[in-house]
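Hey Z.,

So I finally got round to the NAP thing we talked about over coffee. Here's the setup:
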Amino acid sequence: MRKLIAAMKISVDGKMEGPQGSADLVEAWSDDYGLMPQIDACVLGGGMYPGYEQYWTSIQKEPDKVVWITGRAPTPAEIEWSRFAAQPPHYVLSSTLTSALWPNTSFVRGLEEIAALKQQPGKDIYLVGGARTTASLIDAGLVDELRLIVYPLIAGKGNALFATTERRRGLDLRKVQQLPEGRVSLIYGIR
Ligand SMILES: NC(=O)c1ccc[n+]([C@@H]2O[C@H](COP(=O)([O-])OP(=O)(O)OC[C@H]3O[C@@H](n4cnc5c(N)ncnc54)[C@H](OP(=O)(O)O)[C@@H]3O)[C@@H](O)[C@H]2O)c1
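And the result:
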């Protein structure tokens, strides 16, 4: 069965973004998890999808222009992800969204559709976020692996990755790697 792999960037105090919903603790949204060769589908929450689509579309169209989340020109690794990003099918969990710019995007109304997706043949599936979607899919026992990049920062006020998580779950540490500028990559199997 294909694995569903959640991957997020967080501060040491577990925040995935600031209080206004701006993920300004992250300097670039490149695939620092090494997922590109391994996945051929993406799952996202309806809260983050419109901004995600807008961010990567603007980099695809104008790779030299400053982008709005980071306030910088995209890095070479972001440009690489922007070329890859719109190709695999995107499955967006939402009961309200109905339209997307990317032709490979479809809307998923319930978790049973994610369970069915895992049964289909293919490579692994990247759970891009956001927090509430990641929490609900982990609670439902659908996420096989959690990849975190921990930034050397106590963010203080902000939105926590696991704020809406309801169930306790054990993790198996699979890999730890020190990254540049004090970041740490952690890979856990979810029991
Ligand atoms: N730090 C990082 O690495 C990282 C990565 C990605 C995103 N983010 C941040 O994440 C933020 C968005 O996260 P979020 O928690 O606000 O929203 P989200 O998880 O992207 O989306 C939540 C929405 O998804 C739908 N949904 C989620 N679970 C569902 C379920 N079990 N069944 C049906 N629908 C479900 C609902 O949409 P409807 O209301 O339409 O039904 C819900 O309102 C963004 O602001 C972004 O900055 C951070």
